[in-house]
Amino acid sequence: CAIAAGCATVGSPTGGPEDRKGPILVEANPPSGTVNFEGRKVEFEFDEYLRPGDISRDVFISPLPTEPPTAVLVNKKITVQFEEALAPATTYVITLGRGIRDNNANNGLAQPVLYAFSTGAALDSGAVQGTVLHPPTGKGEPVFLVGLYHPDSVA
Predict the structure, then answer these.
(1) Does the pTM of the predicted model rise above 0.70?
(2) Which of 12, 22, 118, 128 might form a disulfide with 107, Cβ 3.0–4.6 angstroms?
(3) Alpha-carbon distance 67 to 145, whole Å?
(4) Which residue in 33, 74, 41, 39 sits closest to 55, CA to CA?
């Protein structure tokens, strides 16, 4: 550009469109649906760097083991480490909440991540089927609230 004047313009690059998408789960190890699980950790890898910080309020495990597991976030990965052997023949569900955010634009997960595995030979279906009848009438009602509790959790 020795002959022409003003070939370059001064300014900042645009950087592309604004990031509005939250992190996306790329891989879980072992995969969701694993049976006969004997390990002590589960790893979740995302497509972008995650915001560092305390994620304990955003990782839910059901049923909760006697010794609460730890959840550690490093770069693009969340590792859930179980401190003790898990109960035999039990289906566990790990839920990663929407408070898990990307590091760049602070976008949360679009929806919670649900991950299930079993220490037994099969995953529990998690479904309960039946008919609820209103005691005074003996008939079904259009709307009923039904709660399910483990017998050991009710005093």
Answers:
(1) yes
(2) 22
(3) 32
(4) 74
Q: Rounded CA gap, 61 and 104, in Å?
A: 27
Q: 41-55: string of b/e by CB count within 10 Å (b at 16+)?
A: ebebebebebbeeeb
Alpha carbon dihedral 31, 71, 26, 117, in 10-degree steps, equals: 20
Tens digits of residue pLDDT in 53-65: 888 899 999 999 9
Give me the DSSP letters along the chain: --SSS--S-------SS---PPP-EEEEESPTTB-S---SEEEEEESSPBPPS--GGGEEEESPPSS--EEEEETTEEEEE-SSPPPTT-EEEEEE-TT-BBTTT-PBPSS-EEEEEESSSS-----------BTTTTB--S--------GGG--
